[in-house]
Amino acid sequence: MSPSRRAVERSGVAPSAAASTSRPRADRLRAAVENQDGRCFWCGRRFSPLVPPTTDHVVPRVKGGPSWRENEVAACRRCNGERGHQGPVEWLEECLRRGWPADVGALAVTLARLETAIVERGGQRRARPYLDGQRRRLEHLGR
Ligand SMILES: [Zn+2]
After folding, report:
1. In terms of pTM, does the model score above 0.90?
2. Which end of the chain has less neighbouring CB within 10 Å, N or C?
3. Distance from the CA of 116 to the center of ligand 1, in angstroms?
């Protein structure tokens, strides 16, 4: 990967809608791991051969969440598996209860970015109201 492309990814600004949706899943996962400094989005554990990263959908696939980079974070298998189909905010609350360093601000940014992507690309009739509900829930959490 070129340094300039890495800088773009680190900044979190998608180069273009087409580029971010057509990239293979493995590439997207690698980019997510980099953006998260090599740590699980939820529990903060560092990825390693024993703790491999997996693709976790912020808005679950069963709730209509798209396979877009903006809807994907890198999570360890434990978090991905235990979260199951729970909403991202419900799972974040569970992480905090467990004393894990789940990042409320990072989730807020991720949800906002996904909303922007949905507005720009259209569609996602099921994911939209679900995302709205999650963002409201997160606002209450921050209070
Ligand atoms: Zn984890």
Report:
1. no
2. C
3. 26
CA 122–ligand 1 middle distance (angstroms): 31
44 Cα–ligand 1 center, Å: 6
| 3-class secondary-structure state, position 101 | coil
Look-up of token digits 């598996």: 81
- How many whole angstroms from 81 Cα to the centroid of ligand 1? 9
DSSP string covering 74-142, please? EEEHHHHHHHTT--HHHHHHHHHHTT----HHHHHHHHHHHHHHHHHH---TTHHHHHHHHHHHHHHHH
Question: How close is the Cα of 75 to the center of ligand 1, in Å?
Answer: 5
